[in-house]
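Consider this record:
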Amino acid sequence: MKKTLFFSALIVQSFSWGQVSADAIQKALETKKQMESQSLFQNVVFDNVGPTVMSGRVVDVDVNPENPIEFYVGYASGGLWYTNNNGMSFSPVMDSAPTQNVGDIAIDWKRGTIWVGTGEVNSSRSSYAGIGILKSEDKGKTWQNMGLLDSHHISRILINPSNADEVVVGVVGHLYSKNEERGIFKTTNGGKTWNKTLYIDDETGIIDVVVSPKNFNVQYAASWSKDRKAWDFIGSGATSGIYKSEDAGLTWKLFTTAESGFPVGEGVGRIGLAVYDDATVYAVLDNQFKRPLESKKSNSLPIAFSVPGDEFLKIPNKSLNSILKNYGLTEKFRAENIKHWIQNGYLQPNEAAKVVLEAINSLAEKEVIGAEVYKSSNGGKNWTKTHPGFIDDFFYSYGYYFSVISVDPNDVNKIYLSGVPIIKSNDGGITFTSISEDNVHADHHVVWVNPNKSGHLINGNDGGLNISYDDGAHWFKGNSHGVSQFYAVNVDEQEPYNIYGGMQDNGVWVGPSNYKFSSEWYQTGKYPYENLIGGDGMQIQIDKRNPNIVFTGFQFGNYYRIDRANNKRDYISPVQKKGEKPFRYNWQTPILLSSHNQEILYMGSNFLHRSMNQGQTWTAISPDLTQGAKEGNVAFGTIAAISESPLQFGLLYTGSDDGLVHVSKDGGATWNIISGNLPQNRWISRVVASAHKKERVYVTLNGYRNDDFTTYVYMSDDFGQTWINIATNLPTSPVNVLVEDNVNEDVLYLGTDNGLYVSLNKGSLWNDFSNGIPNVAVHDLVIQKKAKDLVVGTHGRSIYKVNLEPVQQLNEKVLAENLHVFEIKKIKKSKEWGNNWSSWAKAAEPKAEIWFYSDSDAEVVIQVENSLKEVVFSQKIKAVKGLNNLAYDLSIAKSKADNWKKKDKKLKLEESKNGKYYLPISINKISIQKGKENVFTNLEIIESK
């Protein structure tokens, strides 16, 4: 086997790393489906443990025109969900589909046919690629892939209401690379074949397609030229514009010419469209042309920055952040880190003002026009800007994420714009007012307007779903299901333990590991999960000695030491010395509390920093561990992963976003590059120092930001001097996380952009490990060692957990057996068994999980024998090859109970309220028979004390 693995490693190192074909992706999906059916872990089921109240990014809604309380909601990476009670509850519709990544949805309400264009189009850091266009004719029970496999990101689907087999699709195309499967595609046979009816070039796709409400022949399409890289994003181009078709999408003509009144040229960014009738169409534009000098925001700061330091510290953070937001600086500065500079004597307020002003002046040179609304009243021939001046404080620097407009079907002058916040106009776009309220997330992507009842709105945003019946004056949430997008998770040492997680644009939350969804919190007034901090929630470290001390933060390295017991929060991120270049921080900056000493905290910028006092002071213990800064508007050339050996203090590893892995064996005094033989220029998603062998280290790489979906997983047993490829039979998908089992050194867990896997032999062979989890991106994994639980942070379906005890016991000896039953922990007898406090309540029932391993599919007989050697319970089940589980409720038949009591007069064995008899305090024997083979273990019921 070693020879095979080494040869595999040589093969991987010999080819040039690059994009994976659509056919290879399709084959990988088929492989994954096959692995699911053959996995040794088909009976290991994960539980979703929330949260739900803070949801995930909504990309589309489709409402039944005859019944507006029935609708579907598409989530960027959380799949498709259905409600028929106005959002009070939802059911998942795409759990059997090969992906959860949604760009657009369309429903043929007459037939019940569902179309899903996969791959989100908002072009964010986590806008995952899709696999083409999916179709279900049985309300989501089964799905067919109807083609467009290399489209990656699908923006719109239009179904002809008079002919459901006629469908027009807008395709954005690849996010990080060029490709030709983009533009407008049309089918007239329900998706069996497609014709490309509009193609501009391999860098320009279609971001929106709309149709006249009563005339399917009249359609408009918005093209979008963009160029995204890991280090830079150009969100506009000369080939962006508006096209029109008057023959139901068969032919197209560019209508936004220089004479049309609509902007043309390199500054034309993302465009959103809304049609009122055949003649009237609105467009919202992310205008990336620079503002005229006289119109730029003043580069003088408010008086707040000229007061003495102690007075400055008293200014509410909300007020300071409002100032910074007004200048478009909230990604670079926050009130907390500016106050940290001043509180620690690094800068005085006037000096901080100079730093901020420099950033403002830098932005002023690049300040763009931003959001604009245009209207055509003659079918797109001519366009007029609807408003004087600028729409400020709406798109900020990321209009590419929004640019969505809606018009009330019954009022040509009422329009809605999705951005930050959501705004409304009652006068055709001349003036606007905000309709965002306290119960609504800031970032908006969808507004559906009821064609039969003005003011009834359904809004999709980064925090989920909101519904209003008074035109946005009041909103209620429709967040009853777990679709949060987690970047990172961690656990503390409490019993029961708590789970911590950082979410996309929804901060950091903490909640109990035994969470089960319930609406009871509406009654009690306290949701089980609690918010710790806002922004994009990032990594979390918890002091093992005191769970009230938490280290976490938000994007680009803004981290804090939170004392939950004393409601105290201190900004702790390292700051460069005066005169030095600013540190470069990754979007998801890594932090790590040393397992050897909980006072020692590590944090990565382009340097590795170490604090000996939990972040009060810092020392850089490395040179720049990246390939250096890269010109662009996105932070790059940063450390993305940190690991410290649990076996040796000072044995440190780092991985960078530009593909370098370093090791230090002396606490940072010296560093060596160990990634020379690994694939080059790929994001290092994880470096993991083994807890079982000092010389062992694992590395995963992620090519998502290169549109490279190759599965990169490596292991070294010599501190990274040589590497073995252990991706072996894994389906093609970028890798986000690898965790080594803390008990069984042969067991590894791995999360990719499309699932979760486990290996029982250090990566020689992988099994699917996702029963209960749909095909969703797994971003983080952590093991709670005492509870023996694996906690899974997904980017789209919240958090899952599963107990690992039977998995950890699958060693070579067990795997060599034909049949093996695992030991069952003693169970405490309870008087609650079979009883309830009310005739309306469910009776409490016990459960013993009987886990066993079988080396083949077979029928087995499971029996429970009491101390009198009488069989009191027997059941046949079909076992599969791998782990099997019978959940036994400890009940026995009345005849068995009566017979037992006759022979043992002292036995306490009474009928419960639910009519069942449960095993008394006793030592019983479980036997499992497969063919001629029997295995045994005890089932002991003990007295509860």
